[in-house]
């Protein structure tokens, strides 16, 4: 989300967690039983495997119900149970996030010679805080800029923080906002981190993660953004 900034606030504390793998229960969620698309999708087998369904490449009523539940949970539309590109892209991103484990910077792309730094990998939609080569917190899933309002890459610095920021452009709350590139900030949202297409440019986070980032980081700390978000 791109916004104008106003006030200043600060706090410092520490913490660390691992990425929680999303749990999907076949047949669960809030999807309705009607209006199910019984067409076999191009990613039928991959989606069946991800959801723990029998991998036969055929769309059953149970398959459709499970796919719809996943789509409803993450705001994927149309929520019709079709195993299409967007649904599989979302699942594949989850798989890549799980594969990162506790070594998200295995390739050394995020600088390790700058001390404490917040890293943002657009490709895997992951962020973490490291100090040199030591992982301090994360990795955690994030939701970055959509096509047309992409989160800009490069080395940045946090320059303004506001724990209760309000966007005058989008008329929404931006809790735990930490700005590092013009109007682009870390901040919490209520949406699923796997909700497409993405943000207005900001790095959206779950509330608990945004709060921990608020306590770990301060003005002047480095932020490094790299990669390319799927679908942008």
Automatic annotation (TrEMBL):
What does the record list as coiled-coil region(s)? none
Q: Which InterPro entries match?
A: LD-transpeptidase, LD_TPept_cat_dom, PGBD-like_sf, PGBDSf, Transpep_catalytic_dom
List keywords of the entry alphabetically.
Cell shape, Cell wall biogenesis/degradation, Peptidoglycan synthesis, Signal, Transferase
Domain L,D-TPase catalytic positions: 116-226
The active site consists of 187, 202
Protein species of origin: Streptomyces goshikiensis
Pathway field of the UniProt record reads: Cell wall biogenesis; peptidoglycan biosynthesis
Stretch forming the signal peptide: 1-26
* CDD domains the record matches: YkuD_like
Q: Give one Pfam family, short name only.
A: YkuD
The name this protein goes by in its record = L,D-transpeptidase family protein
List the PANTHER family: EXPORTED PROTEIN (PTHR30582:SF33), L,D-TRANSPEPTIDASE (PTHR30582)
